[in-house]
## 1
Amino acid sequence: MVRTQLAARDVRDRRVLATMARIPRGAFVPTRLHPRAYEDGPLPIGHGQTISQPYIVGLMTQLARLSRRHRVLEVGTGCGYQTAVLAGIAAHVWTIERIDDLSRQAAARLGRLGIENVTFVTGDGALGYEPAAPYDAIVVTAAAPAPPDRLLAQLAVGARVVIPIGSREVQTLQVLERRADGVRTTESCAVRFVPLVSPSAFPD
Ligand code: SAH
């Protein structure tokens, strides 16, 4: 998976490749989908949600430009796979999920894998998570019509948010870097994420 789906494309960050080679994606999908765990695409994880395509997880992590010292916020825990990848590189990850059952299952899964530098929060991630702000990076794994203001406000200067922006059906992966004099936006590729369900993104 790492060689053919990530390194052969444009995921080149050595820490991202090494971390994704270490974390068993099979541990994050329902048992009946184990044979398909390393396929080049998203898979259903229950509650109408998905585990992202491995390439997209690698790309988003690379775009976040993490270091060992970084404190990271993830919005949309889902099954916890992206969470585990972020935690494999950064100092600590706070991850918010709106569906309590998914959050609990992800926490149990990461516990079994011995990953301890993660705090699980249930709530509306479009509002960020104020108690641990500011963050060195924010990774949003659900689509929004525009970057939520509350998330941008919780970025440290020089930090970036990686977020799919667009309609409910199709989006562009964007990187917004907070600078002393404003925000600089760069665009990556076209993506399809489930909606960020929130009064300040896509209402339920
Ligand atoms: N990070 C996951 C992908 C999760 S899919 C992975 O590694 O594969 C997106 C997740 O975002 C879903 O679990 C969905 O329930 C959650 N979500 C949607 N809107 C949300 C919101 N406002 N706050 C927090 N989580 C939200």
Note: The chain has a mean pLDDT of 97.
## 2
Amino acid sequence: MNRRDMLISGLAAAGTSLLPGNSNATAKQNKMTQVGVFPPGFLWGAATSAYQIEGAYREDGKGESNWDRFVLAPGKIKNGNTANVACDSYHRYREDIALLKALNLKSYRFSIAWTRIQPTGIGAVNQKGLDYYKRLTDAILEAGIRPFPTLYHWDLPQELEDRGGWPNRDTAYRYAEYVDIVLKALGDRINNWSLFNESKAFTQLSYWLGVFAPGRKDPLAFLKATHTVNLAHGLGFRAIKAVNPKINVGSVFDVSPHVPATDSDADKAATSAMEKLSNTWFAESILTGEYPDGVLPPDQQAALLGFQTGDDKIMHADLDFVGLNYYSLTRVTATKESNGIPGMHLKADWAVGPYEKTDSDWVIYPQGFYDILKRMQLITGHRPIEIAENGAAYNNQPDASGQIHDPKRIEYLRSHLNALSRAIADGVPVRAYHCWSLMDNFEWAEGYSQRFGLTYVDFENNQKRTIKESGYWYAKVAKENKVI
Ligand code: FCB
């Protein structure tokens, strides 16, 4: 099941037209800038996440995560795949750092598996887990690359899932404890930390739509999870600053321009509500301590979230930078039926419109990258932005000589980087771009069926990595600091 098709469970018929958010004023301005050229010092990188690449799922004292458990349930993952081995990066990390070097990249976004640090998510620390990330970090630094870790990229200790997972408020406090342990061990060698990856995506897909671990389909549990994650941001932020106030702390938000399916008032109103739930429910609430209006019925909001007196102060965090992930746009249709969230009668999906799509069926819409950056700047203000993910699935296989020709990925990256350069020229303070992904990997519920890598991985035979044509192209872009 394509997770984007299931973005929001809704029953209404699909609308018929799209009204992409475009602006004439910016189009005019863009003509005056040199499209595709990046500012000096711009940081080029690539991204991965622990569960998607590491494998070694039972090694060196690692505990069981919710994904280790979820992949075993029949029918949850395409072709019954698991990430027990994945890219085996736990053992091959030096090879993977060599890939980053070969691609001329200067920033590596990876994530830390909580279950390697605290096998059950509570108490006892596993020194071997900390040692692994020390080795990894030191090797990244030795290669002259900036380590850019994310503390939570969706793999929760199963024990905490059993205790209610993210809908359980206590998980925020467990998270802060884990963050404190990691920072005390690694804070001396890493200056930029992301608290979470894509709070919206994982809370929705895990607790509302049931397509990610632990597979729950409970919209009200999803709402509770959003609040716990916001609290965890504030608690995690302060845990890091307590270790060292000079460390830069940010978080990575998945964002997407939302367009009404038609220009009816009902579709427009539905779009406004859904847009806030998707794009600002986390970022704005964390940065201001207040939830945006116009999403939940005001008289029910506190009860729906489990919001307690003082929570505004707990969740507030003046992040040092903001990470944004952009893939596609979202279309919203008003419906008669509720989608399960009180007050919301709408359906939102990602895989529609008169646009070309990638192999994972995601609409290709580069102008949306520009539009969403301008939109998010209204929330993030002066803070530096890092693009933590952007990329495309194309499943090209090696040709007879073993080369991988993936011209569509090059085209995707070229058009998106051009849009990004226009946003920067128009004043959005973006300082880094990370392509998703350094290499093909375990794509969650899609298993190994969707290849997002700049590098091909031979999962079936020998784990051999082969840089794709797009990888060589991206290496040149990184070297020349401009789109070619
Ligand atoms: C993002 C996730 C990342 C990967 C890409 C394709 O939403 O953060 O782990 O799955 O999509």
Note: The first helix runs from residue 24 to 31.
## 3
Amino acid sequence: MYFPHYRPRRMRQTDSLRSMIRETHLHPHIFTYPLFVTHGEDVKNPVSSMPGVYQLSINNLIEEAREVASLGIRSVLIFGLPEHKDDVGSSAYDPEGIAQMAIRALKEAVPQLTVIADVCLCEYTSHGHCGVVRADGKVDNDLSLELLAKTALSFAEAGVDVVAPSDMMDGRIGAIRSALDQDGHQDVPIFSYSTKYASSFYGPFREAADCAPQFGDRKSYQMDPANSDEGVREAMIDIEEGADMVMVKPALPYLDLIYRLKHETRFPVAAYNVSGEYAMVKAAAERGWIDEQAVVMETLLSIRRAGADLIITYHAKDAARWLQERMAEPSRGRDR
Ligand code: PBG
């Protein structure tokens, strides 16, 4: 195995040789594209901190979904922006709520696309927390479970393919699984945001989804970025409660968790390449400081290499396009 008998560079000489021993691959079907849906007609509000991302009314959402599907991407993740917010997030479980309307419209217009809906209260509550806030200012876990289960159920009734709870309350996967099962939705999978950290990388999303907490922070429910074993434990608990897929969020600063979840749970693992990760790449690329395509593809490949089966990313459409272009490109000859 030692030089000069073994020379690792031998297998790096051409694109063709390199591709023969490549261990990790990206495909459009491992990407999920997040979409933000809002009320109104023909709305397309740009999210300033996320170039290329918009808040879309249903007609534009359908257009976007058609484009996503045409690129070979199989799934979208829906976030609803309600007209009305209150302290119990009642628009989240309103059968005529924005997410429910979007789910019905998407399933009718683009039935081949898998529609995943984010289950959380923060976009729907006036205080912006992911659960119900008690008089003493604390987020009430068990009271929140009922509302989260109600939300998941109403998404299932609207025809959603998958529910993805992102609230981080204890026991929510069990509560959602039993609510779905009791109502005949035993075939609706749950992708759990099991290993979700109280991260500073969600900033731009909170503009996109208009869900910044109005007081305090999310540290009493989202995880401490310092913890690794706890992240694995959270995934194990959710699997026990009925999760079909577990998730690490954010992705790039938590590649170690992706690796551990993949190896320790033996369950499908999703990684959420979040808004702040996207915004940093976009900002540096706009200034000409990095090569956007090269950095995005290397990032996605790293997330995949760490063990992610599915990658939720705002880069999905660009990455799918670049993958198509690379497939079409004739293989280059011997490099130096
Ligand atoms: C809702 C939710 C958040 C994200 C996904 N679902 C925000 C948060 O928890 O504060 C973040 C996604 C991103 O930053 O791209 N709970």
Note: The pocket of PBG is lined by residues 118, 120, 122, 130, 166, 202, 205, 218, 274-275 (CB under 6 Å).
